[in-house]
Request: fold
Amino acid sequence: MSGRLSAYPEVFFLYMANDTDIKELHLFAGIGGGIYGGEMLGHHCCAGVEINKFCQQVLTQRQKDGWMDEFPIYGDITTLNGEDFIGSFDILCGGFPCQAFSYAAHGNNIEEKDLWPYMLDFVIQSKAPIVFGENVTIIAIDKAVEDLKKLGYRVERCRLACQDLHADHKRPRFWLLAVKDDDVFQKVAKSVTSLPRFNANFWKINPHSIKYPSPVPVLAPQKRGVGNAQAPIAAATAFRILVNRHLTHLYDSVVPHKDEIDAVFESAETWIQQQNPDDPIYIHTPTTMGNYHYKSMMKHPSCAKYVRIFGKPTALHAEYLMGLPIGASSPFPQTKDALKLWHNQY
Reply:
């Protein structure tokens, strides 16, 4: 094992420091939405792969702030050899970039935008015990399910959106959990099934009462970072639903049964819903563009409602809607106050 990890010794030592912990290796880590989801589950990130320099800066700063465990960040998945990471993690996580499958691509999908083959290579090379994947389309997820089953993984998948958790925006995403190592899965399942139900009290707070902790927002990169991120509460809840499916085999539909969600998540009315009773319109979900306040976008009810609630998009609004700790997308130093508040809100 030490020979295999000689190219990346920091991974080996981080893993061995707490060998009983549940370790996640995050591909396409972004600003860490999935890493925060893992934190909600009691998991620890042992390594991240992220090519975007701004996102690397954010991840590095959050480690310095004590928001995240210390872990190495690698830049380009296409240059990594998964064999060097064998035995260093329990769960391989990745929301593989979706441009090749995106509905917004309008038929202009090209092979170079599809990074699933590189994630699959990493799965094979690293002998990943468990794989947790996410994508914006079911086409991409079903392709991944097919490939993983050919490798001998048992796979469950579902669609879970923020709206399923009573959020004010939709953000549908598709998730898979693939298991090959039963011993690792039993360790994970024992931990996950002992957790209390999640809630989303961060959406009960008046967003206009929140002061952004960084003096200078870096708006465009932050909007892109949040727009590409996983919503932590959605990632963590989807993981729990899929663990339960592996254990019980009671459900296999793409859309989770209400009982599956209720078993792990307690819904509640949000502040926005309290202020807008009987309003069925969902707010536009945070995206990489953040142009939903433009006059030309006011014809879309979701954009018009966004502006009515928030005004011009800011990093605070995007983080709030995504259920991230406020300040998560900032490259500037943060105190632990926002993180402690967030930990008490789920």
